[in-house]
Amino acid sequence: MDYVSALVPPVVMAALFIGVVRVIVKTQGGAAKAKEDAAVDAALARAESARQASAGDA
Q: How far apart are CA 12 and CA 10, in angstroms?
């Protein structure tokens, strides 16, 4: 019976890991994708304009 107690923790961790991966895959895209993409685009635009401004000052 020692082998059962030795195998239970890895099996439980594997099941939890698979569950986390499934949740991550399912939440990709959907209604919030456009909002997230817009936020990333805005952040990139701010970073680019700040970089250009600092390059123009030099």
A: 5
30 phi-psi bin (left φ>0, alpha ψ -120 to 50, beta other): left
Return the CA Rg of the chain.
Answer: 23
Structure tokens at 2: 């020692």
Structure tokens at 8: 């239970």
DSSP state for residue 1 in the 8-state scheme: -
Q: Is the pLDDT of residue 40 over 80?
A: yes
Q: What is the pTM of this model?
A: 0.48
How far apart are the C-alpha atoms of 32 and 37, rounded to whole Å?
9
